[in-house]
Design goal:
The chain is mostly beta strands and about 240 residues long. It is built from no helices and 20 strands. It has strands spanning about 1-5, 10-15, 20-25, 40-50, 55-60, 65-70, 75-80, 85, 90-95, 100-105, 110-120, 130-135, 145-150, 160, 165-170, 175-180, 185-200, 200-205, 210, 215-235. The strands form three sheets. Strands 1, 13, 14, 15, 16, 17, 18, 19 and 20 form a nine-stranded mixed sheet that branches. It has a seven-stranded antiparallel sheet with strand order 2-3-4-11-6-9-12, with no helix packed on it. Strands 5-10-7-8 form a four-stranded antiparallel sheet, with no helix packed on it. Keywords: Iron, Metal-binding.
C-alpha cells in the first residue's frame, strides 16, 4: 500500500526570523497522534537556516540523528569535543545515546538548507558517538546511493544504530530505478525537486510516499528529480 502525503500537509514552522522549517512528523509545538513516527523514523525536518544564525547548544538522548546538508554549510560543536563544519553533499550521524549536547550554527552569510532525520535506536544506553562523511551524493546520477545505514552488508556508508538505510537519488527525466523491498519492511520517499511516477502514483516537489506491504517500488522520473528514500523495518521488534 502506498500513502501519498502532499507537500501542503507538511507542518510549517518559522518560530524565529532565521529559521524556516517543514516538519513531516510531530515535532516541537506540532503534535498529531496519527503522525508521530513511521517505523523507527521519528523526525524528518526540512530546514533552512539563514546566515549568522542557528541552534544554540541543546541536549539530546536515546536517538540516532542524521543531518544531510543540501546547500551551504553548518558548523557543529558538541560536548564530546567535536567541532566540525558540514558542507554541501556531506552526511553527519550523531548517536545521542546516554546523553550529550550540541550546537548547530550557520557561520556564513548564505542560507543553509538541510534535512535532519531522527531514528529510534535499536538499543538504549549507547555511548554517544559521532561520524561525518563526504559522500558527494548531490552529484550522483540515476542510482540509489546509500548514505547512512545500520545494515552491515553495505560498505562505505555512515553507520547508525538502526536497522534502516537512507538512500539518495538524482534521477534524470525518463529514467527508472527499482527498489526491491519486503512486506515486513516500510519505505519512505520524499521529493526534493522534480516529478516522479511511483507504482502508478504521481508525486512532485516536497510530496512524500509512505509504503507498506510492497515487494518493489518502480520509480520513474517524469522530470529531472532529486529524492531521498529510506528503507525501514515495519515491526518494532526489528528496529
Amino acid at each position: 500500500m502506498l500513502k501519498l502525503i502532499p507537500s501542503t500537509d507538511r507542518h510549517h514552522a518559522a518560530p524565529v526570523a532565521w529559521l524556516n522549517s517543514y516538519f513531516l512528523f510531530s515535532f516541537a509545538d506540532y503534535y498529531d497522534p496519527q503522525n508521530v513516527h513511521f517505523g523507527p523514523l521519528r523526525v524528518f525536518n526540512d530546514d533552512t537556516v539563514q546566515g549568522n544564525a542557528g541552534f544554540p547548544q541543546h541536549p539530546h538522548s536515546e536517538m540516532e540523528i542524521v543531518t544531510l546538508v543540501l546547500d551551504g554549510e553548518l558548523t557543529h560543536e558538541d560536548t564530546m569535543g567535536n567541532k566540525r563544519t558540514i558542507t554541501k553533499g556531506e552526511v553527519q550521524r550523531m548517536t545521542a545515546g546516554t546523553g550529550l549536547a550540541h550546537s548547530e550554527l550557520n557561520q556564513t552569510e548564505q542560507p543553509v538548507h538541510l534535512y535532519q532525520l531522527w531514528f529510534l535506536p535499536n538499543q538504549k544506553n549507547l555511548a554517544p558517538s559521532y561520524e561525518q562523511k563526504d559522500v558527494d551524493f548531490l552529484d550522483t546520477k540515476n542510482e540509489l546511493v546509500p548514505l547512512v545505514s545500520g545494515q552491515k552488508v553495505l560498505e562505505d556508508v555512515v553507520y547508525m544504530n538502526s536497522n534502516s538505510t537512507v538512500y539518495w537519488c538524482n534521477l534524470r527525466e525518463g529514467k527508472t530505478v527499482s527498489f526491491k523491498t519486503f512486506p515486513i519492511r516500510n519505505t519512505f520517499l520524499y521529493v526534493k525537486e522534480g516529478k516522479l511516477y511511483v507504482n502508478g502514483v504521481d508525486i512532485g516537489p516536497n510530496d512524500q510516499i509512505r509504503s507498506t506491504d510492497e515487494h518493489v517500488l518502480e520509480i520513474q522520473a517524469s522530470a529531472d528529480a532529486q529524492f531521498i528514500l529510506i528503507d525501514l523495518p515495519g515491526s518494532e521488534a526489528n528496529y
